[in-house]
Amino acid sequence: MISSLEDFDGVAGKTGKVKLPQRRYGFSITRVLVVGQLSHAVEGDQLLTQSRILLRSSPWYSSCSRGIWMIQGGGLFLLTVSSFFPALFHVEEIVFFILLGLAILAGWLEEKDLRVRTPIDLPLGLLLVWILVTTPFSLNPEYSFVEWRKLVAQCLVFYWAVYVIREISQRPLAESTSLTVTWWECLKRQSTPQKVFLGVLLGTLLLSVFALADFMMRGGNWQDRNIRARAPGSDYNWLSTYLVLSVPIVCYCGITARLLWKKILSYSTLGLALLAHAASYTRAGWLAAVVQLFSWGLVTQRRFLLMSVLLGIILVPVALFGLSQKGYQADTLNSWTLESRIQVWKLGAEQLIRHPFVGVGYGNNNFQPVLVDSRMGDKPMHLHNTLLMMGVGSGIPGFVLFVWVFIRLGREFFTRANRSHWTDLETLKLCLGIVMVGFFCRNLFDYMFAGSLAYLFWILMACGLAASLEDAQKPEPQYSLGAS
Questions:
Q1: What residues contact residue 155 under an 8 Å CB cut-off, 6+ apart?
Q2: How far, in Å, CA of 225 to CA of 375, rounded?
Q3: How far apart are CA 418 and CA 171, in angstroms?
Q4: What single-letter DSSP state applies at residue 218?
Q5: How far apart are the first and last CA of the chain?
Q6: Whether 168 contacts 69, CB under 8 Å
Q7: In degrees rounded to 5, what are phi and psi of residue 60?
C-alpha cells in the first residue's frame, strides 16, 4: 500500500507504472472540488430558504401578500378593459410584465407551485418550438424572431391569467364587518372570471359608445359604407373583431346576472354592441357573428334559432341586393375585396406547396405578393388569412399545430352539449366556446391574431380553462338553454 507521496515516488521509480496512484490522486482532487461546489450550492439554497422564511415571518408580510394578489386581480381586470383600446397596447405590455414579475415573486415567497398545466400545453408548446426551429430558414430571420417573441408574450399572458385565477380562487375571502351588503361588497365577492367578464362588459360599452359617436360625427349613414364605424386608434376590422370576442360574454353576463342593474347594463351594452357591429360594415365580422349564432343554436338545440339564422342568411342578402338596385349599399355588395383575397390565397397556397416543411418565415409581413391592376392599383397585399399565414410562414407542421390548439379548446368548451339545463360553469364554457369559434372564423379573412386582440382572446380562454378550478365545489343555479 502507498501511504505517502514519497512512497508513490518510490514505487514509480521501481516499476515505472503509475496509473493506479495517479487515478486515485486525481479522483481525490475532483472529489474535493465537487464537494466544495455542492457545499456552496447547499449554502446558497439554505441562504435563499432562510431569506424566504425571514420575509414570511415579518409582521408586514401578510398584508403585503394580500396586497400583491389584489393587485394581480385588479391588473387582470385593467388589462381586460385596456385591451379594447389598441392605442394603449404598449402600456398594456409594460403593465403585464410588471404583474408577471410580481406574481412569480409572490409565488416563490409563498412556495407555490409555479407550474401551470392546461389541456393545450402540448400543441401550444410544440407550435412555439416549431416556429423557433423554422426561424433560421425565414426570408427575414430577424423579423420572424421578433414575431415569435410576440407570440411567446401572448402565451405568457394566457398562463399568467390561469395562474392568477388559480391562486386567487384558493385564497380565503376577507370577512366583511358591515351588517349591510353593498354593491361593492358583492363585486369583491365575485370570482375572478366574473370580474374579467365585468371588464369585458365595461370595455364593450366604452368601445361601442365611442364607435357609434365617431361614426355619427363623421357623417356615417345606412345608405352605404363609405364611412364606417371604427375602434379608437384602429379601424373597422378591429372593431368587428372586438365585438366578435365580446358579444358572447355580454350575453353570458345578461343570462347569469342576479342583480337588476347588471342585467340592465348587460342588455343595454348588447344593443349598442350590435349597432356598432352593423355600423362597421365588415362582412367578415358579420359572417363570424352568424356562425356564432348558428353554433349557439346547434349546441343548445334551439330549432327556432337555427331556422331563424338560416332564413336570415337568405333574406338579408336579398334585401341588400334590392337596396343596391336603388343605389344603396352598392359598395357593401361589391365583391372586389373577396376576389382579391382569393387571388392572394392562391398565391399563398402555391408557396405552401413549394415550401411545405419550414415555410418562408413566420410573420404576417414575410409574404406580401403584389396584385396587379387591382381596384387600389398595384400594391403589396397580406394573405388576409391567419391559418394560411401560419402554413406559408411555418410550413404544414405549423399549420397543423395551430389548428390543433383550437381543436383542444373546442373539446374543452363544448362538453355536455345535449342538456336542457346548464350551470354557471357550463354556460360560461359554452359562451367561451362561441367566442373561440367566432374568433377562428374571423381570422379566416384577416390576420387578427395580434396585439391587444390576442391578449383579450388569451385572457378569455384562460378564464374558461381555469374556471373549473374555482367553481367546481360550489352549488350552482341552472339556466334553461335547451331545445325549444
A1: 124, 128, 458
A2: 16
A3: 35
A4: T
A5: 95
A6: yes
A7: -95, 0
Strand 421-423, strand 379-380: pairing: unpaired
How do the residues of the chain divide into helix, strand and coil, expressed in percent and rounded to 5?
70, 0, 25
Q: Which residues partner with 478 through β-bridges?
A: 423
pLDDT at position 205: 96
Calpha distance 358→399 (Å, rounded): 11
Over residues 128-147, the mean pLDDT reads: 95
The values of phi and psi at residue 55, to 5°, are: -65, -40
Question: In this structure, what C-alpha cell is assigned to residue 226?
Answer: 363609405
Element (H, E) at 394: helix 386-413
Give the pTM: 0.84
pLDDT tops 80 at residue 165 = yes
CB 237 within 8 A of CB 86: no
Dump pLDDT digits (tens) for 77-119: 999 999 999 999 999 999 999 999 999 988 887 777 788 889 9
- 440, 413 contact by CB (below 8 A): no
More confident residue, 181 or 231: 231
Per the document, the length of the chain is 484
β-bridge pairing 421-423 and 370-371: unpaired
Q: How far apart are CA 376 and CA 369, in angstroms?
A: 14
State the burial class of residue 68 (Cβ atoms within 10 Å of its Cβ: 0-12, 13-18, 19+).
Answer: middle
Residues contacting 313, CB < 8 A, separation 6+: 290
At residue 376, what are phi and psi to the nearest 5 degrees?
A: -100, 20
C-alpha distances (whole Å) from 482 to each of 108, 263, 307, 435 are 46, 21, 15, 19
Report which secondary-structure segment, H or E, holds 422.
Answer: strand 421-423
68-86 pLDDT, tens digit each = 888 999 999 999 999 999 9
